[in-house]
Amino acid sequence: MTEILTSILLLLGAFLILAGSIGVVRVGDYFSRVHTASVPSTVGVATVLLASAVHVSAQLNQLFLKPVIVLIVLFLTVPLSTEMLARAAYITNIKPATAYVRDDAEERRMEHKEAVE
Length: 117
Hints:
Number of helices: 4
Radius of gyration: 19 Å
Strand content: under 5%
Mean pLDDT: 86
């Protein structure tokens, strides 16, 4: 039973990581690429880590939580790093594919740097 669960989690994780990789190639602008690189890949790596926790726990006949600790760190750091990448792109004046619907940073009068090409 644990082999089936581990296999399903591994295949689901591999599919999500592949979907994120294909999404990076298919989308147009930088901001969408950052989003498609972070969200599916994070969930894909999370399912792979859960699969490893299930498999090792079944082999050792005790609860193995090291992958879960890595998962917690992953969920804490990936959204923050994605936000920082998007903010750095905004400050360096990288333009999105479509115009902003609402620009919250403009209300705070955030200064743009020289455009990077």
